[in-house]
Amino acid sequence: MIRIEKLSKVYYPGTVNEIVAIRDVDLRVAEGDFITIIGSNGAGKTTLFNLISGNQPATTGRIFVNDRDVTSHAEYKRAAYIGRIFQDPRLGTAGRMALEDNLIIAFKKGMKGLKISLNGRRRDFFREQLTKLEMGLESRLKDNVGLFSGGQRQALTLLMMVISRPSLILLDEHTAALDPKNASIVLDLTTRFIREYGLTTMMVTHNMGQAIAYGNRLLMMDKGEIILDVAGEEKKNLTVEKLIDKFHKIRHASFENDEALLSP
Ligand code: ATP
């Protein structure tokens, strides 16, 4: 359902400061895939998300969503089918608006084109959805979201995403700014929603254990490339030690290739 072909992003091209943040990336994401993405600082994880979401234009390459070429679509247009959650819990919700109004926006986005009456039943629907968060927010529909804790806001962002029904969800270290207890609550909620609604998801994390424990597929990025793509049984059998070992083997091999290229 998501097809990425020969995608590259080069900052300051042709200058001494040139940075190849994404290098010739090819990737296919199947419907219902839950992909975890790891990689060292500067590996290109956020840039990859920026290109997929349309936050930045690609230097070369194409992106297809459900066979539609979206490479030239602006970010606001892609937001209709690609949802993204950032590290900062304030970014996914409007803090100066009431909880109910935030939900209405997500609801309208998700129900676009459907003739569903937006009367009193809608509030019941919201309460029912909020109950799933198990945070007591169902009794705070009139409160401004700015009053909520980081964990509550991130959980709410997740719920709004589910309601708005995107084709793809990008989670960019969305629990990294939360305290351990809230991070664990939000991560549990994430996996529950992904499972219950069959959401196609890509999740960046710095935590190798998390990357191994969650999802059906794991990508490792380094220097703008996907250097490891593990799924199914192979992923289930991964350990942090095996992952580090694979990283060193791949990098050592590519270093040897570089040396071979340089030798006469
Ligand atoms: P981290 O885990 O530290 O967030 P990352 O894997 O998300 O790292 P990116 O943020 O995608 O890495 O950065 C990849 C490379 O591109 C880095 O060298 C970074 O400095 C560079 N880069 C990212 N955004 C820009 C930008 N807007 N302008 C110039 N260089 C950028």
Number of domains: 1
Task: Note the quaternary state here.
Answer: single chain
Q: Per CATH, what is the topology?
A: Rossmann fold
Percent of sequence in beta strands? 15-25%
Rg to the nearest angstrom?
A: 20 Å
Largest beta sheet: strand ordering: 6-7-8-3-9-10
Count of alpha and pi helical runs: 9
Question: Which regions have little confidence, pLDDT < 50, spanning 5+ residues?
Answer: 113-117
**Each distinct ligand:** adenosine-5'-triphosphate
- How many extended strands? 10
Q: Under the CATH scheme, which architecture would be assigned?
A: 3-Layer(aba) Sandwich
Roughly what percent helix?
25-40%
Tell me the name of the CATH homologous superfamily. P-loop containing nucleotide triphosphate hydrolases
CATH class type: Alpha Beta
- Mean pLDDT, rounded to whole units? 89
What about the largest sheet?
Answer: 6 strands, mixed
Shape: globular
